Amino acid sequence: MANNFHVAIVGGGLCGLALAVALRTRSVPFTIYELRSSFTELGAGINIGPNALAAFNLIDKDLGEAVYGLCTRNLPGKEDVWFQVRLGAPSGKHEDAELIAELMSPPTGNMTLSRNELLQKLAEKAGLGKARFNKKLVGLDEDEDGVVLRFADGTQDRASVVIACDGIHSSARRIVLGPDHPAAKAVYTEAVVYRGVLPMDRLSAAVGYESAHMSTFYLHSNGYVILYPIDGGRQVSTGFWVWQKGAWQHNEWMLPKQSKEFHNAFRDWGDTVHKIMDLMSDPPVFATHYHGVQPDSMSKGRVCLIGDAAHSMPPHQGQGGAQAMEDAYVIGELLANIAQQQTSREQIDAAFEAYEKVRVERANQVKDTSVDAFDFWTGFWDDNVSDEQIRQFLKAQDKRFHWIWNDDIAAQAERAIQIMQDSLAK
């Protein structure tokens, strides 16, 4: 590089490692600071839609091809299907688990893989030598030459800029905003999910071959059930979503061994869902949170928030990871641009301003529609759902997702670079 520009990436999850791959591909020096002792990812599966795959390909072409190769897809002949929609109980006009509609998302359909498998591929591409583990961020001190990162173990390090990718529990967000700022912490969505991973052979025996091997929603008035194959079709990621109104009364967001509560929450559902439930072994429950209050800016000085640290969202549209990948690509392009020369504070300010102008509005819109998507899925239920209601549901689904899936991700970065250059030319 032409100068000593160095990027500190706080957080070694999917977002942080994707940014690391983007920077490594573009020869921008960086260091990853990860809270845990190794790269690990909580949760079972992740959905890769059209915009996420586009972002992976733009971050690094080889990465995109590797992710594509790892993914499990729907059955042959149905690869363009995103999800099948089935009823979670019998209705006046339809049988239990009857196939009501197929939601389409060409060209990817619903590509899926385990979160940890994706994380390990990203770590391989990023390079383990670039990581520092057991680093809990406790402070950020900026001066005219850069930022000093302070960690709980008493160590410090310095960087030109800090990109905070430390997720929904972001320490960097609280440090930048202040612990008492209303936007510093995520808030409860009043919905919970019981999660599990099932063997494909057992699920197939319970609900039938096609239902088990296709990404599927089961819908009802108080929640929805989502299933999709992972691990090459050997396992199925399951999520049983239901409203749980009021405040979350626990310090932890995850409670183990919730079989009694689980069966009570879904007692009014149909036989097919109950067959799936019988395969679940005392599942944990997760309280869903998101950043319901947003700050005026996602950057302050030499520090910028991206991914879930910036705009965490519930997964009702499968977009949390996708938006993080879009962030990583755009900010990676901007940082590569300013790292090509002796980098000034003005360039850093212009880069972060351009990132915000291009990414924040879109990501927040996806976040907001992800929140109300729970109502979208549960609102479809009608004891006498008509063919016209189904047609309207499909139209609404297309309207809801088309702008998310089909945005030009490369054009986002081009627009951001132009905004940055125009700002510096003034």
From TrEMBL:
<dbReference type="InterPro" id="IPR002938">
    <property type="entry name" value="FAD-bd"/>
</dbReference>
<dbReference type="InterPro" id="IPR051104">
    <property type="entry name" value="FAD_monoxygenase"/>
</dbReference>
<dbReference type="GO" id="GO:0071949">
    <property type="term" value="F:FAD binding"/>
</dbReference>
<dbReference type="Pfam" id="PF01494">
    <property type="entry name" value="FAD_binding_3"/>
</dbReference>
<keyword id="KW-0274">FAD</keyword>
<keyword id="KW-0285">Flavoprotein</keyword>
<dbReference type="GO" id="GO:0044550">
    <property type="term" value="P:secondary metabolite biosynthetic process"/>
</dbReference>
<feature type="domain" description="FAD-binding">
    <location>
        <begin position="6"/>
        <end position="368"/>
    </location>
</feature>
<dbReference type="GO" id="GO:0016491">
    <property type="term" value="F:oxidoreductase activity"/>
</dbReference>
<dbReference type="InterPro" id="IPR036188">
    <property type="entry name" value="FAD/NAD-bd_sf"/>
</dbReference>
<protein>
    <submittedName>
        <fullName>FAD/NAD(P)-binding domain-containing protein</fullName>
    </submittedName>
</protein>
<keyword id="KW-0560">Oxidoreductase</keyword>
